[in-house]
Amino acid sequence: MARTIERDELEKAINAGAVTVVETLRAAHFADGHLPGAIHIHFEAIAEQAPSLLPDKDAAIVTYCSNTACRNSEAAANQLTAIGYTNVRKYAQGKQDWQEAGLALETSQAVGS
Length: 113
What we know:
Blueprint lengths: L2 E2 L2 H10 L3 E4 L3 H6 L6 E2 L5 H8 L7 E4 L7 H11 L5 E4 L2 H7 L13
Parallel strand pairs: 1-5, 2-3, 2-4, 4-5
C-alpha cells in the first residue's frame, strides 16, 4: 500500500519545487485542471511512460486522482514502487480536496497522452 501525503505538506513541497506531481486520470481531466506543475501519466500507462517522464527513480513523486473514491493514484503509486521508484506517495484526497481548500488548478494539455 502506498504511503500518503496530506494537502498542507504537498502544497509546501510543490511551492518549494521539491516534488514531481503526477495526475493519474485521463488526459481530458488533466486538461480541465490539474495541481500546479503536475505532469500527466494515466495509471494504465505507468510502465510505458514513467521511465521517460520520471527518469530519477529516487526523486520525490506524488500521484493523485480525483478524490478518495478514485483508486488510480494508489494503482499508479504501487506500480511505480514495483518498477523501482523509491520515494513515491499518493495524495489520496486528490483534486477535490485541493479545490475545496480554495487552491487553484492549472490548465494545459497533457504531454505524451
